[in-house]
């Protein structure tokens, strides 16, 4: 039996240790179709903890806005809004949206344009073909 309270506490400890901001964390939760870690099923708690502790849903970056781009892309892929959740597909989306060859090279203003585009896709909720590399 899973001790839910301990799992939720471990998730929040890992979130702080990785320096993940609240908005990025909420985007990750949305990928599971919930708004709070307490709404996750036992298996989902384990999945989220694995992602936070090394299962790479997004590339760790020193830039919080780049981490947000990866987190949103992962959430969209998990929700089925983008068909291809790979880094190559994200790179192609970033190239078309901001004219930058790699998400890691985004400047804050360019990242904002990408983030807003990803949020718009998330709000629409319909599958997009913008992810085909």
Summarize the structure.
With 133 residues, the protein is mainly α.
Described by the principal axes of the CA atoms, the overall outline is: globular
What is the radius of gyration computed over CA atoms, rounded to a whole number of angstroms? 15 Å
Number of DSSP-assigned strands: 0
Total count of domains: 2
The first-to-last residue Cα distance is: 42 Å
Mean pLDDT: 82
Report the order of strands and helices. Answer: HHHHHH
**Helix tally?**
6
Could you name the ranges where pLDDT drops below 50 across 5 or more consecutive residues? none
Which properties best describe this structure?
0% strand; 133 residues; mainly alpha
Describe the structure.
The chain is mainly α and 133 residues long. The chain has two domains: 55 residues, no CATH class; 76 residues, no CATH class. The protein starts with a helix and ends in a 9-residue tail after the last helix. The mean pLDDT is 82.
Q: Helices, strands, pairings?
A:
Elements: H1 4-18, H2 22-30, H3 42-52, H4 64-78, H5 87-98, H6 108-124
Helix pairs in contact: 1-3, 2-4, 4-6, 5-6
